[in-house]
Hints:
The chain has 103 residues and is of the alpha+beta class.
Amino acid sequence: MQSNKTYHTIFKFGLLGIGILFLVISVFSWFLPQLIVMNGESIERDLAITIVFILIGVFLIIIFFLIKNKFVLANIGNQSIVIKNGEWEENVNWLDVESLSLI
């Protein structure tokens, strides 16, 4: 059994993508408020909304940098586990495993 590379990529880089999206939305809401329409009306420039979106974006990007190295790919076989993290690879025998942890 092997880890799914698609889910690995989505979970690893999802926070970065969402954080950048929040930052882009905050820039558009401040410099081009006429592009954002709610209930058929353009929104007005609002400093509070812009700051909230910037803080959410920065928070998500900081979380990304804190947890990006925690994601690994695992290949579980009958006698061994192969753990891959970028260039780093470790082969562990099942008999040597004392415990498994998600984090």
